[in-house]
Amino acid sequence: MKNIFCIRHGKAHHNVLNDQIGEKAYFLEECFDAPLVNEGLIQAEKLSKSFLQLNEIEIVYVSSLTRTIQTAESIFIDREKIKIIALDKIKEFPQGKEICNKRRSKSVLKSKFLRTDFSELDSDLDKMWRADRFEKQTELRKRVSDFKIFLKGVNYQNIAIVSHNEFLKELLFGRKNSESHDLEHCHPYKLDLSC
Fold first, then answer.
1. Are the C-beta atoms of residues 99 and 29 closer than 8 Å to each other?
2. For residues 40 and 109, what is the distance between their CA atoms, to the nearest angstrom?
3. How large is the greatest C-alpha to C-alpha distance in the chain, in angstroms?
4. What is the rounded CA–CA span in Å between residue 16 and residue 24?
């Protein structure tokens, strides 16, 4: 049986602006691939010290957005043997219009984050994000379904996933997620793959 822990990234710039001005923060150019704020870095550092299963983790799959990579690298800072692999397919929902969910180029990410493996990204530029339309809920469900199949097929038993609120709610709770509250930043939620 696999032990899979889902972690929402630490508090990021667009989260702070959302608290101040609402969802229009997600569309501001200054929130492009929003990084963590200091509070988010502190949240990740705290989890690094309190995560009881930290030493058991064999691999980390992380969204290819800056805030999740910063979170993963902060949590697993002293665990050099643990692979951190960036995946586009676990980016936040919706892909499109919300500039905070558009990733930087692969080449820029590789130059900024030396610990993370970006070889699984299909292209240098973000081809998932679309300026002309929002991703549909059915597309998110397909991404989540495909990712569950992927997880079942990997040869690791102890896995961490560092991703985003909406993606992880769909992964953890499925169609019930519309009723659930936002996930806590930097809190490990156990995923039951048998569901």
1. yes
2. 19
3. 44
4. 12
Q: Which two tokens stand for residue 99?
A: 């500039």
pTM for the structure as a whole: 0.96
CA dihedral sign of residues 49, 55, 57, 60: positive
pLDDT at 179: 59
Strand-strand pairing, 59-63 and 83-87: parallel
Query: How many angstroms separate the CA atoms of 71 and 139, rounded?
Result: 26
Tokens read off for 80: 């050099």
Residues 1-21 have pLDDT tens digits of 899 999 999 999 999 999 999
Helix (H) or strand (E) holding 85: strand 83-87
| Cβ contacts of 80 within 8 Å, gap of 6 or more | 115
In this predicted model, what pLDDT tens digit does every residue of 119-164 receive, in sequence order?
Answer: 999 999 999 999 999 999 999 999 999 999 999 999 999 999 999 9
C-alpha–C-alpha distance, residues 140 and 152, integer Å: 18
Check: CB of residue 193 under 8 Å from CB of residue 5: no
